[in-house]
From TrEMBL:
Transmembrane segments: none annotated. This is Valine dehydrogenase (NAD+). The keyword Transport does not apply. The keyword DNA-binding does not apply. SUPFAM superfamilies: Aminoacid dehydrogenase-like, N-terminal domain (SSF53223), NAD(P)-binding Rossmann-fold domains (SSF51735). One of its GO terms (molecular function) is valine dehydrogenase (NAD+) activity. Belongs to the Glu/Leu/Phe/Val dehydrogenases family. It comes from Aeromicrobium panaciterrae. Its EC number is 1.4.1.23. InterPro entries: Aminoacid_DH-like_N_sf (IPR046346), Glu/Leu/Phe/Val/Trp_DH (IPR006095), Glu/Leu/Phe/Val/Trp_DH_C (IPR006096), Glu/Leu/Phe/Val/Trp_DH_dimer (IPR006097), Glu/Leu/Phe/Val_DH_AS (IPR033524), Glu/Phe/Leu/Val/Trp_DH_bac/arc (IPR016211), NAD(P)-bd_dom_sf (IPR036291). Residues 147-356 form the Glutamate/phenylalanine/leucine/valine/L-tryptophan dehydrogenase C-terminal domain. Keywords: NAD, Oxidoreductase. It is an enzyme of class 1 (oxidoreductase).
Amino acid sequence: MTDSSTPPSAFGTEHEQVVFCHDEASGLKAIIAIYSTALGPALGGTRFYPYGSEQEALADVLNLSQGMAYKAALAGLDLGGGKAVIIGDPNTLKSEALLRAYGRFVQSINGRYYTACDVGTFSPDMDIIARECDFVTGRTVEHGGAGDSSVLTAFGVYQGMRASAFHVWGDASLAGKTVGVAGVGKVGRHLVGLLLEEKANVVVTDVYAPAVEALKEKHPEIRVVADTAALVREPLDIYAPCALGGALDDEVVGVLSAKIVCGAANNQLAHEGIDKLLEEHGITYAPDYCVNAGGLVQVADELEGFNFDRAKVRAAKIYDTTLSVLEHAKSEGVTPAVAADRVAEQRMREVGRLRSVWLPKS
């Protein structure tokens, strides 16, 4: 069971710490990345995914951990940004031994990083990790946790979508709007339910057919298309990418009819400059880490002793944050992605500097 901490300069990043974790007996290969602890301990989920290579996993965890830092800052939380990835197929590799080994690595960082659920990991997994680690959130309700964080993630995206609608059309109502949802797993399925409650027209797709079938059975009024390529060519008012990152590239933007992009996926912009391309096509982009912060709000609330109603009130503020970012972008003549970064960086800078002020221990 070995770990190694690599200086961030080796990757040409501003990350504070990157830890490689390896436990041969259980098959664990993981990477933990801490981008910033300027506002508090880093919090971010553990993604369990069959990456093609360690380099691919490293690139993902570096991007995701930076996104978490900006997300926490923009959401007004006293938390930094971190993320972890476990390399492998969770359907075949996940075991109690592997999760407990991973928990010991998280424990060894001594509170600089708190873990939670992400793609491929769930609240019961967090309960197992917590048997070896004190720095775990997103646990099951039975163990005093918040349970499934996708509920408030979807609620936050929904609030961000309403704010975007108000910014674009002068009316926050989504009734009668056609919304395309790509990915109806953990978050997407909850988002679809919220949209249908507001009488929106919903078109969906997902690479996992059983997820689509289950949703169609529950909500027969939704329309299903074959794949994302077909979905983005549909006549949409709003496009909601809710699967993995990189959803917005040149080809997608070129065919998209939607006036708003607002979804739960992390790192939606495939490369630098896509935000400008969206703007040139008259598409308002609600920055992903701004609108998908509901899950982070939920698991962060667990650190205080979870109260769902309190967490939902906090997640509802994503409406105001999104509207503020969009208005900031318009007034400063920059894209929403740039505006969101500026607001997050300003808070990390202004509040983070206070950490240098010495206070006596109580």
